[in-house]
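During the first year of the project, the team set up a workflow for recording each protein of interest as an amino acid sequence followed immediately by a discrete structure-token representation. This format lets reviewers and collaborators read both layers of information side by side without switching files. As required by the reporting guidelines, we include two representative entries from the current panel. The first entry is reproduced here exactly as it appears in our internal archive.
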Amino acid sequence: MNKGMVQVDQERLRAQLEKKLPPKVRLFQLDDIPGVMRSRMGWPVAAALMERWFRGAGYEMPEYMKQGRAPYKATTLGSMQLEEGVVTMGWALGFARVRAALAKLQVSWATPAGIRQLQKRADDWIGIRSPQGWRLGNLAQAAKMLDETCQVNFLTFGRMSDPLDDLYGAMGEATLKVAVSGWVTRQGTGRTAVAIDELGFYLRDSYDFSDGDRAFLSQPLGFWGYDGVSRVNPPGGQVLISEQWSHESEGKARGHTYLVQNEDFRKWRAKHGRGGDFIVLSDVHRVRLPFPMKLEW
């Protein structure tokens, strides 16, 4: 039999079979998540942060950067590694767990560790400031500046069991920091007195998909599909990291959900050459104290 005839017959048969199949539909993949966050979940902040990650050049955050240690302090980071405009304290305070964290930190920041940090901040300026006194902390500055000049304590909040909302999608577990402003004077006895009259609160988070030391278990981030996210375990496979199409009805295709884990984002970065980790800092929420808090050492 002529080989050419066999090939033609096979192609004709394949074409006839495809006509009987449902039209091809695009299956859900990892980089569809921001669109679902925005359009289906109503999570604009979470969507904006993830869109930035997908757009960015491939970059894996070093552990020192995640910790805010030299040489990766926020004041040294460029715009590729630092996001300062998306997360605001006005938005964050719309969530009860942020308000609770702020209220707790406001009344408990002056722990022994907090006082030691305050003392260090003040002592850094002794000898180069007026002996008549000076103001410590300019809370009108950006959070990255406060981080190095007058931040004294912090509180970490957020759990896997938190409500599935924009805050959960944007930050998950995050750090609320407190900076102080007040008048510092040197006493005749060589002691230092500080009168704190204003506090500044801001959020810090590392936007990355590292699993740290959990080499054998990547953190699950929910079961995602075109209709949103769920914590339950419905039937479905691992999320796709590149475009795939399937012969099935659009309704069936849109009903699939897929397990998403941290490692999927790392695989996506390796495949596409994009996906840049970055540090997130909010603006500063300032709270004027009804009367100064006086400390001396």
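The second entry, processed by the same pipeline in the following quarter, appears below.
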Amino acid sequence: MSENSSVADHLNDFNTVVNMIASVTIEFDEEVRALLILCSLPESWDSLVMA
């Protein structure tokens, strides 16, 4: 995610990638999805990730 994009844009991109992965029969449980999205946030969002 770039520093200047909105959260909605990031979530849309994230969901697109997850849906593409799911289309090849790889499924993630909710905990893994949460970790993936937290790891994909830009460094400027560290305070959010730590909360």
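For the second entry, the following points were noted during internal review. The radius of gyration is 12 Å. Residues 7-50 form one domain. Both points are flagged for discussion at the upcoming steering committee meeting.
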